[in-house]
Amino acid sequence: MVEDQLGKESRVLITTHNQLIASDAHAQLYELRPLCPEESWMPFLKKTFPTASTSPVVCLVEFEGMGNEIIKKYKGLPLAIVVSGGLLSRKEKSKSSWRKY
């Protein structure tokens, strides 16, 4: 068992969509809900415009519609949202570039 190998003070964190995997580990389950679009917005903006001298909200005014579509595509999954924002941060800040994404 993990406890025998790591000691009683150690913790192992398992993340999964499959509750059977978590229950096989005989662990306490914590269920997280997906982020709503409003909660998704700021992490997306911070990753997409990491060097914005002002609020990233100001930088995205012309991209707001496309940004909302991207957020919807990832259905509230935080990792997917920030990864997509990080990828977009490396692209040219133009609507044509974002449409290709």
From TrEMBL:
Domain of life: Eukaryota
Residue ranges of coiled coil: none
GO molecular function: ADP binding
GO BP terms: defense response
Listed name of the protein: Uncharacterized protein
Lineage, opening ranks: Eukaryota, Viridiplantae, Streptophyta, Embryophyta, Tracheophyta
